[in-house]
Amino acid sequence: MIQLINLRKEYKTKKGIVIGVDQVHLTIPKGEIYGIVGYSGAGKSSVLRCINLLEKPTTGQVIVDGVDLTSLSKDQLRMARQKIGMIFQHFNLIVSKTVFDNVAFALKAAGKAPADISKRVSELLQLVGLAEYADHYPGQLSGGQKQRVGIARALANEPNVLLCDEATSALDPITTQSILELLREINQKLGLTIVLITHEMEVVKDLCSRVAIMQKGQIIEEGDVYDIFANPVQPLTKEFIRNTLEFKLPSKIWSKLDPAGKVVKVLFRDDAAEQAIVNDMLKHSGIQANILHGKIDYIGDKPLGTFIMEVTGDTQEIEKALQFLVDRSCGVEVISRVGE
Ligand SMILES: Nc1ncnc2c1ncn2[C@@H]1O[C@H](COP(=O)(O)OP(=O)(O)O)[C@@H](O)[C@H]1O
Ligand SMILES: [Mg+2]
Question: Per-residue pLDDT averaged across 24-38, rounded?
Fold first, then answer.
């Protein structure tokens, strides 16, 4: 488990003090894949780098598996750090060293014997699917392969925690999927805690169980990924989710709609995603509904349904029908026309 307690990180610059992290309280349960989302400059990397004390917090505590890292001596911290692996957006491999030596480097630094190093590197390269590439140099590898080397190196000393700073941001979508798949596999096989920074909510949706949304150094919303997708509160959280779940009706369709009707987006959460609630609504009211778009996303294995429909009929009846949906815990949002 990782606990960040009232974490603050200030940077002293020529222009004065810049606040990277402000009042961050966070608990990351053991064995979870935890997402931290935010735009550039939000403080994500600063938080992550405080977890292994690559950045020393200005104030606050970083507690990993019960040990307060801010209280350790230099030597103790060096040992503690071996149990926290990290991977980076631009891989940070040593270009003059082979794949084998890049991975072996972390083991040598930890003082392991050569025979053990050789065995361990082979295991690691096997794990990340690069068994055939031990003698290659980073320059001969694709981006995805480089990140696999980065992952092997990060796992060398059998860490309990893996920190990922925009680990897939430099990769194409297909390679991103394969790296995310590898991270999931590692999480399940080795049971280690993964903290993953990203600016893509899609990555969070695919991989994480919990997520924190950051803005201006602070965590503005935090929770179970499904709950955050189903019930976002902060405008920024809604914006991030909109970028992944939103469907825009083509203007051609708008132009064909009845100007007297309403277009509503309905979010069906949990079990409601699989029930015939729209049918029931129509039975209970005297309105007509015309489904314009519908889809179900699966987050973890829970369904989250989104329907966009045009409803027409008596205004009061429409209100009643929409209330029927709200009463069944659906999210209901009236969408305005393009240009309105
Ligand atoms: N080494 C540094 N020196 C000065 N300011 C920094 C340094 N690192 C980060 N910052 C500042 O701290 C804030 C948060 O940055 P960062 O943690 O890198 O955000 P993110 O990873 O979300 O893009 C930004 O305003 C950034 O300019
Ligand atoms: Mg960053």
Answer: 97
